[in-house]
Design goal:
Elements lengths: L2 H9 L5 E17 L2 E20 L5 E8 L6 H15 L4 E2 L20 H13 L7 E19 L4 E19 L2 E11 L4 H18 L3 E2 L4 E7 L4 H10 L3 H5 L22 E4 L21 E5 L2 E2 L6 H6 L10 E4 L6 H4 L3 E13 L5 E13 L3 E5 L2 E5 H7 L1 E2 L3 E4 L2 E4 L2 E9 L3
Parallel strand pairs: 8-16, 9-14, 13-20
Antiparallel strand pairs: 1-2, 1-5, 2-3, 3-4, 5-6, 6-7, 9-21, 10-11, 10-13, 11-12, 14-15, 15-16, 15-17, 17-21, 18-21, 19-20
Helix pairs in contact: 1-2, 3-4
Length: 428
C-alpha cells in the first residue's frame, strides 16, 4: 500500500487530527571476525507510523494513539488498524492542544549526500588502520550503515521530506596478560564516519584493556575530585538538558526558571547549552523534529542562566511556547581551563563504568567503577572496583570543564569534566 493511500484512509476515518511518518531505509550490514569479513547483507525496509487524535465532546481534551501500518497491508487491514487507534485515542484525556503547522522552507529539504557504500568504506578503513598488538586487539565487530529517507505529514498541512545517514558500530576489544583475558564492549552511533575520532576511541579502549589487567583495588577515598573524560560525561550534561525540557517543567520535575541561575552561588564554570540544527557526522541532522516542528539554533542555558525551555508540541503548548521544538543536536560549550590543567593534583579519572547514571529528577549520581586512574599527585595507578556517588545539585555549583570539547554523535561536550568532592567508595 502506498503512503498516499494510507493518508486518504486516515483523512476519511473520522480522526480529528493525525500525523504520519514514513521512513524508507537502505541498510548495509557487515559482520567481522577480527578483520575478516564473515558475512554481509543489504536490506531495504519501510516503516509507516500513524498517530491519530480524538477530541472529547466538549472539546477540552485530546487523546492520541499510534501504531504501524505495514506497506504490504491492504485497504481493509489499514482501515481496521486506524479504526482501532481512534477507539483507543478516545479513552485518553489530555488537556487540548493543536499540532504543528506548516513552516517556511517546508517540502523536499536538501540533505547531506548519503552513500552507504562510501560511508561503510570509511568505517572499515578506519577500524583496520587502528594499531593493534600481540596482547591487545579487536576480537570482532559489526557495522550497520543506513541511508534513511523520512517523510512527515500531518492534518495541519505539514509535509516535509529529507534524507540522512544513521550508522552504528559495535566492537569487542580483547586484552591478554599472563593467562588472563578480558574484553571491553563499545557501541558507536553516528551519521557519517569521523575516522580520526573512531580511531582515537578504539585506540584508547585498547589501552584501557591493557591497564585493566594490572589494575589494583580502588582505595576508599571518601571524598575526592572525579574526572570524566569518556562518554559517561553525557549523563551529566543530559541532566542539564532534561531540566530544560518542557515536559519536565509541566510535570513539576524541574524547578528551574527562565532568567534565573541553574546553580545558585556557583563558583565553578557555568554551563552554556545550545540546541543546533547540524553537527558534523551526527545522526540527528534533521530538518524538523518527530512532530514536524522546524529545528533551529536555540540557547537553553547561557553562562549558567536558564534561557529557554524546549520540548514536544503537547507540553510546549501547555507552557505557551509556540516556537518550540525537540532538539536533535546539543552543544555544551567548553569551560575556562585546559584538559591538562584539569588533570592536576589529586583526583580519580574514571574511564570505564559497569554502569553510570544521573537521576533525571533529583540529580543523584551513581556509578560502579570498572577502570579508573588514581592520581595521588606524584604517581598514576590503574584501579578497579568501588563506586562514585553524590548529587549534581551540589556538583553543578563547583564543576570545572575543559576548553577542549569532544563529540559523541549528536552531542558536543567538554572533553574533560571535573566534579568536586564526590563520594568514592573503595573496592570491597
Amino acid at each position: 500500500m502506498k503512503l498516499n493511500e494510507i493518508i486518504d484512509i486516515v483523512k476519511a476515518s473520522g480522526a480529528d487530527a493525525w500525523e504520519i511518518t514514513d521512513i524508507k531505509e537502505e541498510g548495509w550490514e557487515f559482520y567481522f571476525i577480527r578483520h575478516k569479513l564473515d558475512q554481509n547483507r543489504v536490506k531495504l525496509v519501510e516503516h509507516i507510523r500513524v498517530t491519530v487524535y480524538k477530541k472529547s465532546e466538549d472539546g477540552q481534551f485530546l487523546g492520541s494513539a499510534g501504531g504501524e501500518i505495514a506497506p504490504t497491508a491492504d485497504a481493509e487491514e489499514a482501515g481496521r488498524i486506524v479504526g482501532g487507534l481512534i477507539r483507543n485515542a478516545a479513552y485518553v484525556r489530555n488537556p487540548f492542544y493543536t499540532l504543528n503547522k506548516p513552516f517556511e522552507g517546508m517540502g523536499e529539504v536538501p540533505g547531506e549526500p548519503v552513500d552507504p557504500a562510501a560511508i561503510a568504506k570509511d568505517f572499515i578503513e578506519a577500524v583496520r588502520a587502528v594499531p593493534e598488538t600481540a596482547t591487545e586487539d579487536i576480537n570482532s565487530w559489526e557495522l550497520f550503515v543506513s541511508a534513511k529517507n523520512r517523510r512527515f505529514v500531518n492534518s495541519e498541512g505539514v509535509d516535509v521530506t529529507y534524507a540522512y545517514p544513521d550508522c552504528m558500530l559495535e566492537a569487542v576489544i580483547n586484552a591478554r596478560r599472563d593467562g588472563h583475558e578480558i574484553e571491553l564492549y563499545r557501541l558507536y552511533k553516528s551519521g557519517g564516519c569521523d575516522r580520526a575520532a573512531l580511531a582515537r576511541d578504539i585506540g584508547e579502549t585498547l589501552r584501557y584493556g591493557k591497564d585493566k589487567l594490572v589494575a589494583k583495588d580502588t582505595p576508599n577515598l571518601e571524598k575526592a575530585d572525579v574526572v570524566f573524560s569518556t562518554d559517561a560525561a553525557l549523563e551529566i550534561y543530559d541532566w542539564f538538558a532534561l531540566r530544560m525540557n518542557a515536559a519536565f517543567k509541566v510535570r513539576g520535575l524541574s524547578d528551574w526558571e527562565a532568567g534565573k541561575p541553574v546553580a545558585e552561588g556557583a563558583t565553578g564554570d557555568r554551563v552554556t547549552l545550545t540546541a543546533v540544527k547540524r553537527l558534523p557526522n551526527s545522526s540527528r541532522n534533521a530538518a524538523c523534529d518527530a512532530e514536524g516542528a522546524p529545528v533551529r539554533e536555540a540557547a537553553l542555558i547561557e553562562d549558567g542562566v536558564a534561557k529557554r525551555f524546549l520540548g514536544d508540541r503537547q507540553f510546549s503548548q501547555y507552557m505557551g511556547l509556540e516556537e518550540s521544538f525537540q532538539p536533535g543536536n546539543l552543544v555544551a560549550s567548553g569551560g575556562s581551563l585546559s584538559a591538562d590543567e584539569l588533570r592536576q593534583g589529586r583526583f580519580l579519572e574514571v574511564v570505564e563504568f559497569s554502569d553510570f547514571q544521573v537521576n533525571p529528577m533529583n540529580g543523584d549520581i551513581a556509578g560502579e567503577i570498572r577502570l579508573a586512574y588514581w592520581h595521588d599527585g606524584d604517581t598514576v595507578t590503574p584501579v578497579s572496583g568501588g563506586s562514585v556517588s553524590g548529587t549534581m545539585a551540589d556538583f553543578a555549583k563547583t564543576m570545572r570543564m575543559s576548553k577542549e570539547t569532544r563529540q559523541y554523535d549528536c552531542w558536543i561536550v567538554p572533553a574533560v569534566t571535573r566534579l568536586k568532592d564526590v563520594t568514592v567508595t573503595g573496592a570491597m
